[in-house]
What we know:
By secondary structure, the protein is α+β, with helices and mostly antiparallel strands. It is built from five helices and eight strands, in the order H-H-E-E-E-E-H-H-E-E-H-E-E. Among the domains are: 45-94; 103-179, Nuclear Transport Factor 2, Chain: A, CATH 3.10.450.40. It has helices at residues 3-21, 33-38, 103-115, 120-123, 158-161, and strands at 45-57, 60-71, 76-82, 88-94, 129-131, 151-157, 163-171, 176-179. It has a four-stranded antiparallel sheet with strand order 1-2-3-4, with no helix packed on it. A four-stranded antiparallel sheet has the order 5-6-7-8.
Amino acid sequence: MSPRLxxxxxxxxxxxxxxxxxxxxxxxxxxxxxxxxxxxxxxxxVTARRHSDFILVNGKEQRRxxxxxxxxxxxxxxxxxxxxxxxxLQTEHLSGADLSLTPPEVDRIHQLIHAQPxxxxxxxxxxxxxxxxxxxxxxxxxxxxGTGTRCIHAILAADFGNTAVAHAIVDLQSDRVVHPFFxxxxxxxxxxxxx
Length: 195
């Protein structure tokens, strides 16, 4: 090795060794309640249910897989049709569809209710059960639960699920409790156990 290359190599070794002992810059981020609340936010497409069906194509019966789901990236319910080989044939937007919830969505409803300041003390009691795994809520005059929302009516029930103590509306699309203490209208009342 030439003296010049040896000198450059030695200089680089010293420089790299010095850099490795310097403290790394610290990236600081103060966690907020908002960060915690949105850490488990739903994203992407979630399949609610799927079934097989048969249709006639040119006089021959062919199997199709029909899938229903919610697209959290676009705020729409979808129906997807696949052929027997799993190829996507068609996607349709479904307005006003009542789609069943998946276990992660039910878990998210529980997390949001437990994080909601007005509800966390009630939800945290050992005998309170949160019923919120399939009660879709749509009200045309409610701006919080109109088009593009995935609002669910959750019931907090004491006595291990027997006595309703609070009603809340959770929008999974916006990832928040939109009505912590929901009171149904007189035209469509919800009967509370014991009333």
